[in-house]
Design brief:
Elements (H helix, E strand, L loop, with lengths): L8 E2 L10 H7 L1 H4 L10 H21 L6 E4 L2 H13 L8 E5 L4 H13 L2 E5 L9 H6 L5 E5 L13 H14 L5 E5 L11 H4 L3 E5 L10 E5 L25 H16 L1 H22 L4 E3 L9 E5 L5 H10 L2 E2 L1 E2 L12 H5 L4 H4 L2 E5 L6 H20 L6
Parallel strand pairs: 1-11, 3-4, 3-5, 5-6, 6-7
Antiparallel strand pairs: 2-8, 7-8, 9-10, 10-13, 12-13
Helix pairs in contact: 1-9, 3-9, 4-5, 10-14, 11-14
The structure holds pyridoxal-5'-phosphate (PLP).
Length: 396
């Protein structure tokens, strides 16, 4: 374990990121100075309202949308739930079909499964060995009663990018041909700050974002809802967010979200160059130092921030513990939100064997990551794997 004064080599930015200083500074006044309820009429409340309006405009600018199409939520999971259950609940009966993929985050898969219990049907389209969905295969699964298609922009475990625009276009054409009406949702939580989020280019009706993946606060997110798309709110009450998400607004977090997205977008191009260099150093380093390792993902359609490796004969957990001992925080591809040691559904869908899937490690880079941090994790990985090979009883 590292002592508190030692800097942790934090390589788990796909799990969460620290709130950056500029964002924190923008948020702070809203806790105890500009604390008015934004729905009240006096001027103190106006400050909160102004903060929310500004955040909404900043967000809309990045998405190329109208500010009225931005709904602030309590994070990426809530946004996904609102998109999926909110569209399903408006149907005249609990029937209809949802089309999605086998590699979505559980914040998409589990709400779809909840709907299945109520009578809705769903199809999970598979991926190739790099984690890519074939747009033609996806569109071919559209049925006349398919009301929603949900495809993530960037996978959180392996970093593979989907061609959401092509999938959306082909899916809409397929829906037209069978006389159906379909909405397209994308979980873009891992795409923010890495790819364009232009909703018109992506051709989507609904898009989920989360603050804490982009150096903003946890528990803050957005659902973009294209004008004309109706949703049944998950949270009913005072009618905030144009009746789509009730509850007194979490003003500080909304302000923090807007600022974090603005900064992420402004720095996107320069960050991409830096991340690509670091990622190349990491991937080449792993294959040189650990020749029997496997790189899981796409070499061409990927975000450089997220890399996933499997190490034969070793489980992810002892590797992570060994890295932690050396002051490095990474994550196992098999468990992003729970301590489960189940092999990752994403890796299994990519055709990775269960044995290799449980030995996977995700390394995700961030703003503070340096070349020295990459060299540090390369050295630590080969040391830890060497130790596990020397003490095979610790391997499984
Ligand atoms: C792709 C993806 N979608 C959704 C979520 C959930 O976001 P939040 O933690 O804000 O609820 C995450 C976070 O792990 C994610 O990576």
């Amino acid at each position: 374990m590292t002592s508190p004064e030692e800097r942790i080599n934090y390589l788990d930015h796909a799990a969460t990121t620290p709130v950056r200083r500029e964002v924190l500074e923008k948020m702070l006044p809203y806790f105890s100075e500009k604390f008015g309820n934004p729905s009240s009429l006096y001027s103190l409340a106006g400050e909160g309202r102004y903060g929310i309006d500004e955040a909404r405009e900043l967000t809309a600018d990045v998405l190329g949308s109208r500010s009225s199409e931005i709904v602030f939520t309590g994070g990426g999971s809530e946004s996904n739930n609102l998109a999926i259950k909110g569209t399903a609940a408006l149907r005249s009966s609990t029937t209809g079909h949802i089309l999605t993929t086998a590699i979505e985050h559980h914040a998409v898969i589990h709400p779809v499964e909840q709907l299945e219990k109520l009578g809705y049907e769903s199809t999970y389209i598979g991926v190739d060995e790099t984690g890519r969905v074939d747009p033609d295969e996806f569109a071919a699964a559209v049925r006349p009663d398919t009301f929603l298609a949900s495809v993530m922009l960037v996978n959180n475990e392996v970093g593979t990018i989907q061609d959401v625009a092509a999938i959306a276009q082909k899916t809409r054409e397929a829906a037209k041909q069978v006389g159906g009406e379909i909405l397209i949702h994308t979980d873009a939580v891992q795409g923010a700050g890495k790819l364009s989020l232009d909703v018109n280019v992506l051709n989507v009706d609904l898009m989920s974002l989360s603050g804490h993946k982009i150096y903003g606060p946890k528990g803050a997110g957005v659902l973009y809802v294209r004008r004309g798309v109706e949703l049944e709110p998950l949270i009913a009450g005072g009618g905030q967010e144009r009746q789509r998400r009730s509850g007194t607004e979490n003003v500080a977090s909304i302000v923090g979200f807007g600022e974090s997205l603005r900064l992420a977008e402004a720095e996107r191009a320069s960050s991409n160059l830096k991340m690509t260099d670091l990622s190349t150093r990491l991937i080449e380093g792993v294959s040189e130092r650990i020749p029997d390792s496997f790189f899981n993902g796409s070499r061409t359609h990927r975000v450089p921030e997220i890399s996933n490796f499997s190490f034969p004969g070793v489980e992810g957990e002892p590797i992570l513990l060994g890295l932690d001992f050396k002051g490095i925080a990474a994550s196992s591809g098999s468990a992003c939100s729970s301590a489960s040691l189940e092999p990752s559904h994403v890796l299994l869908a990519m055709g990775v064997s269960p044995e290799l899937a449980v030995g996977s490690v995700r390394i995700s880079l961030g703003r503070e990551t340096t070349e020295a941090d990459i060299d540090d994790v390369l050295q630590a990985l080969s040391d830890v794997l060497g130790q596990l090979a020397t003490f095979p009883s610790a391997k499984n």
